[in-house]
Write a structure and sequence with these properties.
alpha/beta, seven-stranded mixed β-sheet, 12 helices, binds S-adenosylmethionine
Length: about 300
């Protein structure tokens, strides 16, 4: 089975504006699709790749220019420094889960197969989706589905889960479907469960908080002229990236200088972001929600 098919491969690697002898970071190595393309295009350069999932290590190439770190990208700066790297010429992040993680039923990322509700990208992580579902109070559970799943009936979802677990704890994908199935809109069941699972996955893996931590460190380690290249898969993470590239903060409100000009640490290269064309989507349907943003550090 294929480990992953990279989205927006050419567009994202072009976005890095690679120098043959530059130092680059791929913070989401996965199946290595983006990394391999970088290695093809640099000559004497160096590539450091991060992935918190140790399964990704099976894809590590034997290449002296390449270093794989089985680490969370929230520790970007310390890990680079530990390996003698203070600054880099470009960084790529292709967020979310790999096909491998999604397709492996035992990891519990998909509602299409029954399995324990795990959803940890890092198998050594302490909190699983089961733990969140069985221990969070009703209000924080509703907040999770509202904030991370973008579900407007989040309160009812939380209520049904709390009612279910008052009889027995939730353990599997089928349990959550039993608990909230009656709330799934007719003919839109897949969309509904996709949002429920998105909310849980983001919470289990602290995806938004860790993305913010990584972006702030990326800005610190990038050399002037260095490119920040990010592919997102839903509007929550896209908003974080867009605001950060525009203003250097997550609120998207830029500081004004003495003359009223907005101060920004980046020059935006892709104003609206780049999405896959029909041809790419016809070959890789899972790329359909991808959005690529590129900015250059000033
Ligand atoms: C969409 S896949 C990347 C696919 C890759 N670009 C390729 O071409 O094969 C995302 C990968 O990032 C990893 N990941 C997600 N969040 C991470 C984090 N905070 N730290 C390190 N790795 C992370 C996941 O484990 C997954 O393998």
């Amino acid at each position: 089975m294929v480990y992953h098919i990279p989205a927006l491969l050419k567009e994202s690697i072009d976005g890095l504006n690679l120098k043959p002898d530059g130092i680059y970071v791929d913070v989401t190595f996965g199946g290595g699709g983006h990394s391999m393309e970088i290695l093809k295009r640099i000559i004497n350069g160096k590539l450091v790749a991060f992935d918190q999932d140790d399964d990704a290590s099976v894809n590590v190439p034997a290449d002296k220019r390449f270093l794989f770190l089985n680490q969370n990208f929230r520790f970007l700066k310390n890990n680079l420094r530990f390996n003698g790297i203070e600054t880099v010429d470009g960084l790529i992040a292709d967020l979310g889960v790999s096909f491998h993680q999604f397709d492996e039923p035992a990891r519990g990322f998909t509602f299409r197969q029954d399995a324990p509700l795990d959803m940890r990208m890092n198998k050594r992580g302490t909190i699983t989706a089961v733990q969140l579902l069985n221990t969070l109070d009703e209000q924080p559970l509703a907040d999770l589905f509202y904030n991370f799943g973008e579900l407007i009936n989040s309160r009812r979802i939380a209520k049904e889960i709390v009612a279910f677990r008052s009889v027995r704890p939730l353990a599997t994908v089928n349990d959550i479907i039993d608990a909230i199935g009656k709330l799934a809109p007719h003919r839109q069941e897949h969309k509904f469960y996709a949002k429920v699972f998105q909310g849980l996955r983001i919470a289990v893996n602290h995806e938004i908080d860790f993305l913010k931590e990584m972006l702030e460190q990326a800005l610190e380690v990038l050399n002037p002229g260095g490119r920040l290249v990010v592919i997102t898969y839903h509007s929550l993470e896209d908003r974080v990236v867009k605001n950060f590239m525009k203003t250097g903060n997550f609120e998207g409100v830029g500081k004004q200088d003495f003359y009223g000009n907005i101060e920004t640490p980046f020059r935006i290269i892709t104003r609206k972001g780049i999405t896959p064309g029909e041809e790419e989507i016809s070959l890789n349907r899972r790329a359909r929600s991808a959005r690529l943003r590129v900015a250059e550090k000033i």
